[in-house]
Predict the structure.
Amino acid sequence: MLLAFTSCQKAKPTATSPRANIDACSLITNDEVQKIEESAVKDAKSSEGSDDSFRIGQCFYTTEVFNKSVSVAITQRNSASEKGRDPKEFWKETFGRYEGQLAKRDGDEEKKKSLEEQEEDRGGTPPKKIAGVGDDAWWSANRMGGALYVLKDNVFIRISVGGPDKEESRIDKSKALAAKALSRL
């Protein structure tokens, strides 16, 4: 009887076990977006999709000043698929190469310049390592602004804020929203 009782208890998720699917719109409130973007949220739309590897949930917060809208996405293992991958593995493949480049850049301005030129030749700017949020975080800039990618345990989130702000301000706003989202994981 004791064996039957203990086997029916629900296991708590750990850093390596799959979690229940997380709704991206549950990670940040409309009020939090309004406070950071200084524009009221008119609507928050949730969407999700999956492939063999991952389940990706997204929430788009449409603000009254449209260019201050916010997008939040969460990437998790697709637990419904036998081929579901650990997002940490994908993270290492995606951002791990930049860790090595950071080590090469430190202290050697000539190497730093050469590596930045190589990345620009490939058509992009290398992401920036961001301290103080999650287990690991990177800012990836693009023509439209950029996005903050944050790893926490076995999921990662992507936060993109709109508006005419300079990059540092966007990073700060994204970090503030990421802190709210991470507290709800």
